Amino acid sequence: MPKYELVLLKNMAQPGYTGALDEYRKTGGYTAFEKVLKGIPPSEVIELVKKSGLRGRGGAGFPTGMKWSFIPKDHPGPKYLCCNADESEPGTYKDRQLIENDPHQMLEGIGIACYAIGSHHAYVYIRGEFDLGAEIIQRAIDEAYEAKLFGKNIFGTGFDLDVVLHRGAGAYICGEETALLESIEGKRGKPRTKPPFPATHGLYQKPTVVNNVETLANIPYIINRGPEWFASLGTPKSAGMRVFCVSGHVNRPGNYEVPMGITMREMIYEHAGGMRGGKQLKAIIPGGASAPFLTQEHLDVKMDFESIAQAGSMLGSGAVTVMDEDTCMIWAAMNLMEFFHHESCGKCTPCREGSAWLLKILQRIEYGQGRMEDLDLLVSLSKRIEGRTVCAFGDAEIAPVLSTLKHFRQEYETHIQERRCPFRPNVVLAMAGGH
Ligand SMILES: Cc1cc2nc3c(=O)[nH]c(=O)nc-3n(C[C@H](O)[C@H](O)[C@H](O)COP(=O)(O)O)c2cc1C
Ligand code: SF4
């Protein structure tokens, strides 16, 4: 029995629920879409979403109603809505669960969002590796067309909407909203320089909203249960429930839907069942690979946008990775840097070249070849990347380096002084043989 009333994970928690359209409709599905189309003007829908306090669940936490209000009302040409289902941030797997088990929540949210911003064309951009998810979404879209929930003259109101599934091809960077737009347009997935922003110059240079799967899935419930209900969950500035993906050295890794603002201690020790093997907790990444590491000292920090930022990290994609006392922090940072180096799109020099250098230095420290000067070098290199790149990926790739140096500097020094990794002696031996 979950401690809090589930919202997005509620239907799928019922035994036998398949997420098919008829089952979703039995739970009240598509009544919010009908309600807005038949009786709430678009500007009022935007006001309701603003009032709810909903903030984007894709990473940056931007207020959703405000984002919608940036779309020019008098624009003559097409406007677009893109649902970001690229979910490639390491440790993040909430959108996948929402897509695979209850896809119509997100599709209904897409319908309402399109009506609110005056768009008749929506794309769902799904991560290339999500074969099953793509199949399920396509089936759900087909069901919605057959039931005349998408297409022409929906609910007899004269509102038309087309929804198209677009599959990615495996690049993490295509989750960044402007790279996603480039990719849909058939170009290489590289982020655009901003401004201009997608609200005015998005897909095909037309006004566009990009929203995350979880953000959109919340919309029908805000309409049906009211913005006050949503705002009463969570904290005043971080409203609502959030699906956190807990992974790493815990007893029960998984997705947990809880109100924002519970402590990391509650998340790890109550919901995720505590540390595996009764080990000590050493480090936590609270919001996906792009979020700086926190430590045991931060266990009582609340999991809302402001509190996590105040503690020096970010809530990001909601992926909580927990590491125990046996984890080498240099190895952890190196592992993430391998990912960032591999996924850098190469457009800007500081990110492309910097990630290669950071990885090289971390590798030599981990494998017993490090020098004390490397620690300053890691910092100065990171500072030359920070704020000097086209997209936020540049700032993300330095987060593991700077935060492990901040909280675990002694561990770096021990590696250098002892010329080995104290946590992974066998790996050092293997590497030593190769040098
Ligand atoms: C490198 C990078 C990767 C991103 N990946 C994703 C992703 O996989 N899914 C997602 O929803 N947002 C991702 N984002 C955030 C998007 O750019 C965008 O802010 C988000 O989709 C907006 O939706 P929201 O307002 O509903 O959060 C990423 C951002 C960056 C910089
Ligand atoms: S910061 Fe990195 S990922 Fe982003 S545009 Fe520049 S090179 Fe590409």
Automatic annotation (TrEMBL):
<keyword id="KW-0479">Metal-binding</keyword>
<keyword id="KW-0408">Iron</keyword>
<dbReference type="GO" id="GO:0010181">
    <property type="term" value="F:FMN binding"/>
</dbReference>
<comment type="similarity">
    <text>Belongs to the complex I 51 kDa subunit family.</text>
</comment>
<dbReference type="GO" id="GO:0051287">
    <property type="term" value="F:NAD binding"/>
</dbReference>
<dbReference type="Pfam" id="PF01512">
    <property type="entry name" value="Complex1_51K"/>
</dbReference>
<dbReference type="GO" id="GO:0008137">
    <property type="term" value="F:NADH dehydrogenase (ubiquinone) activity"/>
</dbReference>
<protein>
    <recommendedName>
        <fullName>NADH-quinone oxidoreductase subunit F</fullName>
        <ecNumber>7.1.1.-</ecNumber>
    </recommendedName>
</protein>
<dbReference type="InterPro" id="IPR037225">
    <property type="entry name" value="Nuo51_FMN-bd_sf"/>
</dbReference>
<dbReference type="GO" id="GO:0051539">
    <property type="term" value="F:4 iron, 4 sulfur cluster binding"/>
</dbReference>
<dbReference type="Pfam" id="PF22461">
    <property type="entry name" value="SLBB_2"/>
</dbReference>
<keyword id="KW-0004">4Fe-4S</keyword>
<keyword id="KW-0520">NAD</keyword>
<feature type="domain" description="NADH-ubiquinone oxidoreductase 51kDa subunit iron-sulphur binding">
    <location>
        <begin position="330"/>
        <end position="375"/>
    </location>
</feature>
<keyword id="KW-0285">Flavoprotein</keyword>
<keyword id="KW-0874">Quinone</keyword>
<dbReference type="GO" id="GO:0016491">
    <property type="term" value="F:oxidoreductase activity"/>
</dbReference>
<dbReference type="InterPro" id="IPR037207">
    <property type="entry name" value="Nuop51_4Fe4S-bd_sf"/>
</dbReference>
<dbReference type="InterPro" id="IPR019575">
    <property type="entry name" value="Nuop51_4Fe4S-bd"/>
</dbReference>
<dbReference type="GO" id="GO:0046872">
    <property type="term" value="F:metal ion binding"/>
</dbReference>
<dbReference type="InterPro" id="IPR011537">
    <property type="entry name" value="NADH-UbQ_OxRdtase_suF"/>
</dbReference>
<dbReference type="InterPro" id="IPR054765">
    <property type="entry name" value="SLBB_dom"/>
</dbReference>
<dbReference type="GO" id="GO:0048038">
    <property type="term" value="F:quinone binding"/>
</dbReference>
<keyword id="KW-1278">Translocase</keyword>
<dbReference type="InterPro" id="IPR001949">
    <property type="entry name" value="NADH-UbQ_OxRdtase_51kDa_CS"/>
</dbReference>
<dbReference type="Pfam" id="PF10589">
    <property type="entry name" value="NADH_4Fe-4S"/>
</dbReference>
<keyword id="KW-0288">FMN</keyword>
<dbReference type="InterPro" id="IPR011538">
    <property type="entry name" value="Nuo51_FMN-bd"/>
</dbReference>
<keyword id="KW-0560">Oxidoreductase</keyword>
<comment type="function">
    <text>NDH-1 shuttles electrons from NADH, via FMN and iron-sulfur (Fe-S) centers, to quinones in the respiratory chain.</text>
</comment>
<keyword id="KW-0411">Iron-sulfur</keyword>
